[in-house]
Amino acid sequence: MPSMTTEPMIRAAHLHKRFGDHEVLKGVSLEIGKGEVIAMIGPSGSGKSTFLRCLNQLERVDRGEVIIEGETLVSTDASGHCRYAPDKEARRICAKMGMVFQHFNLFPHLSVLGNLIEAPMTVKGLSRDAIVPVAEELLRKVGLFAKCDAYPSQLSGGQKQRVAIARALAMAPDIMLFDEPTSALDPELTGEVLRTMRQLADEHMTMLVVTHEMAFARDVSTRTVFMDGGDIVEAGVPADLFSNPQQPRTRAFLNHML
Amino acid sequence: MDYILNIMGPLLEGTAVTLQVFGATLVLAVPLGLALALIRLSRFRAASTAVAGYIWLMRGTPLMLQMLFIYFALPFVPVVGIRLPDFPAAIVAFVLNYAAYFAEIFRAGIQSVGRGQYEAAQVLGMSRAQTMRRIILPQMVKRILPPMSNETITLVKDTSLIYVLAMNDLLRAARGIVQRDFTTMPFVVAAAFYLVMTLLLTWGFMRLEKKYAVYDD
After folding, report:
1. Rounded to the nearest 5°, which phi and psi values hold at A197?
2. How far lies B75's CA from each of A30, B80, B86, B87, in Å?
3. Which end of chain B is more exposed for a tag (fewer CB within 10 A), N or C?
4. What backbone torsions phi and psi does residue A223 show, to the nearest 5 degrees?
C-alpha cells in the first residue's frame, strides 16, 4: 500500500446513506492516496456506486465526512448534524474530481469537441483558443481526434465512453471517478475503454473505479476494495485479495465472478 | 377576378392587423412562457404553485372571455384598474393566455431531458444556471419544435377573436364585405390568406427541425 503520510486525495469517513427504509451505506470509510488506482468490486446493490456518488455530491450523505485534498465537502458534528460546504465552494471542491458514468451522459447537442470545451469555457472562463488545443490533444490521446466534429449519436459505445473520459480530463482534475464505465458496452467494445483507463493509471492519475471487470481490478488497480451489504468487507493489493481472500463473502463473490 | 382585386385592399389591411397581433403575441409570450416554466420547475414551492394556478386559470377560461375582461372589466378593478385601448388590451390578453400554453410546452421539453445530463454538467462544475442555459435549454428547443409549430398555427387563427373588440382583423374585414356585397367570395379569399400564413409557418418550423436534425438525442 502506498504511503499515507501525506494528505490523502480523498478521505471519506463513516459515510451513511439511506434511501427510504434501505440503508445503502453503513458507515463506509476509505482513504485514497495520490496516484492510487482503487478498484471497487462487489455484488450489485452493495453500495459501490452510491459511495462513489457521495464523494462528488451526486448523492448527499446522511452522516459522515468527505474531505478532498484537505478541503471539507461535508462533515458531521457530534450531534449527528451533517453540514455541507456552501454551493459555490462545494462545486469548486467537487471539480477536483472528474467523473465517467456508466451511460456516458455526453451532451447530444454538442459535437465531440464541443463536449470537451463546454465546461472549461463556461466554468473556468477559458477562451476557445486556449482550450481547443488542449481538447484536441486529449482526443488524440484517446484515439478520437478524427471524430472532433462528429456528434455523440454518431459514435459507438466505446467511442462515446472514451470521449466522456476526455471530457472529464479537459477540466484537468486531480482525481478520476469511474462508475461502471464498461457495464453498458458490448463486450467487444470494453477493451478500448479499459486500455484508455490503463493508460491513465500508467500516468499515475489517482483513480477510483467501480467495476465488474475483475481482470482490470486484478491487473491495473494498486488496491482492490470489496464491498458488500453497504460496507467494505475487505481491501488489499489485488495479488493478495484475488489469490487469498480472507473473508468468506469475498471468497464467495470471487468464486462466482472468476 | 376584378372583384377579388377590388376587395384586396380591405383584406390586406385586415391581414396587417392579424399579423401584428400574431407577431406581438409571439415575441412577448415566448419569453414570458419560458420564465413561467422555469418558476414552475423551481424549488420555490409557493412560486411554483402560484404559476400552476395561473396556468390553470388561463387555460381553463376562454381567451375571448379574458380579452373581454381586460378590455371592459379591468378598468373597474380596484388598484390595478387601468383602461387599455383595444389593441393593447388584445395583446395583453393574448400574451397572458399564450404564455400559459407555451409554459406547459417548455416545461414538458425541459422535463424530457434526462437526469444524466444534469449530473454530467454538475460533475463538470457547472452551476444550475449554467446547466440550464448551456445544456438543458438548447436540448429543449429541439424537442418542443413540433408542439410549438402546432401552437403558433393555432395562434394565427385565434387572432380572429379580436373582432369582439371591434378590431378589423382579416376575418372581420372579410365578413364586412360579405354582408355588404351578398357574396361569400371574401370568405374564400380570407381562407386562402390564412392558408398562406400557416404554410409559411409550417415551412419555417420544418426548416428549424431539419437544422436540429444534425444530432440525435
Report:
1. -70, -40
2. 69, 8, 13, 15
3. N
4. -150, 135
DSSP secondary structure string for all residues of A102-154: TT----TTS-HHHHHHHHHHHTT---HHHHHHHHHHHHHHTT-GGGTT--GGG
Q: Which residue has the cell 436534425?
A: B213
The verdict on a CB contact (< 8 Å) between A95 and B124 is yes
Given this model, what pLDDT does residue A5 score? 56
The arithmetic mean of pLDDT across residues A247-255, rounded, is 94
* pLDDT the model gives residue A65: 96
Instruction: State which residue of chain B sits closest to A95, comparing Cα positions.
Output: B125
A199: CB partners within 8 A, 6+ apart: A141
**Nearest CA-CA distance, residue A169 and chain B, Å:** 10
Distance of alpha carbon A100 from alpha carbon A173, whole angstroms: 12
Alpha-carbon distances of B50 from A10, B38, B42, B81, B139, rounded to whole Å: 44, 13, 12, 21, 27
The percentage of chain B sitting over the pLDDT mark of 70, rounded to a whole number, equals 100
Spatial separation of the C-alpha atoms in residues A135 and B167, rounded to whole Å: 59
Q: Please indicate whether, in this complex, the C-beta atoms of A101 and B116 are within 8 angstroms of each other.
A: yes
A73-94 residue pLDDT tens: 999 998 989 999 999 999 999 9
A1: pLDDT strictly greater than 50:
no
Q: Which three cell numbers stand for residue B38?
A: 422555469
pLDDT < 70 regions, chain B? none
Question: CA geometry: angle at B79 spanning B75 and B84, to 5°?
Answer: 30
- Report yes or no: B134 at the A interface, CB cutoff 8 Å: yes
Report whether A236 contacts A222 (CB < 8 A).
Answer: no
Q: pLDDT at residue A39 above 70? A: yes
Taking only the tens place, the pLDDT of each residue in A7-16 is 899 999 999 9
Measured between CB atoms, does B214 come within 8 Å of chain A?
yes
